[in-house]
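Progress against Task 2.4 (sequence-to-structure conversion) is shown through the following example record, which the project officer requested during the mid-term review.
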Amino acid sequence: MWIEQTANGKYKACERYIDPISGKTKKATITIDKDTKAARKAAQQALTAKIEKLQTISSTADQDITFKELVDLYISHQKKTTRLQTWRRDENIMKNISKVIGDDTKVNKLSARYISSRFSKAKKENVTLNTYLSHIKRMLNWGFREDYVRDVSFLKKLKPYPDADRKARIQDKFLDSSELRVLLDGMEVTRWRLLTQFLALSGLRIGEAMALDNSDVSNVIIVNKTADAKTQVITKSAKTNAGNREVFVQAELKAAIKEIRSFVLRDQLRAGYRTDIFLPGPDGERFQYYAYNKYLKENSKALLGREITPHALRHTHVSLLAENGVPLDVISRRIGHEDSSVTRQIYLHITQKQKEKDNQIISEIKII
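Structure tokens generated for the chain above:
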């Protein structure tokens, strides 16, 4: 070890080491405030630790990491980079996939044939297998980037399973304007009717709506936090600029907000509670997701003949905007999605239907 003095009057303790990847000699340094015997001793210990760390090859691709171990690492990464609902959903899906593939299966021995055979033995519907396929590809590609997986080229051989009902299901993911009106007209619980209308007109996620306080809602809705459906714990919203956004309040939404505030004021006076929550539950606390979800499913089944979830109202917002000619990029920014395959599918479905209507109109007229 040797000491070098820096331009600002401090010192650097230096030592050479061999880089394990390149084989070249490199220099490790530690800054110290003064050149004393005690400082040198501490610097030597710090340098030794630093060099040991630098000489440890970070790649784990040669290790016999199991599928379950990779799932755990992937979910740990998801917890740090995605919203609570997202990583919890991914965690459940990946645990199911791990059971199908085999928890103890060595990741670096996976092949397209092995994955296909395990999927076939699982006897799941093609729609489920396609979900599994997209998630396993996403995780293995992440593992490759992080040096847990040696090779992912075989993933190109894995193609989506035939799914003849996909188009029909796209239509089931949202309501058209007439269906929405039927649903709203038939909902007898005012609180849930107002929430349904608000979600369809704003495009907010259910967790984002749960987390709203009165201060978040004015001429725009400030979306920067979300509530967990199970615990109601408030956390920051998505870590992307798209997730944290301001949603413009158009005339219809403004009227819905006014109606919500009048309802909440009357409810507070009747029940004797005080709250700053934008739309509280019957007890004055944040509303219960499961109570609303149950009510929405039961009423949509009775009124429309099919069950919908709160998230379908977000998709409904997409369809209503597309129906009115709003461009896809504008819709994506409004709902906080920079890139969503479902949003694109709904948009294309609606615009295609609109083109067919336009063609029908033109086909029925005589110009000359």
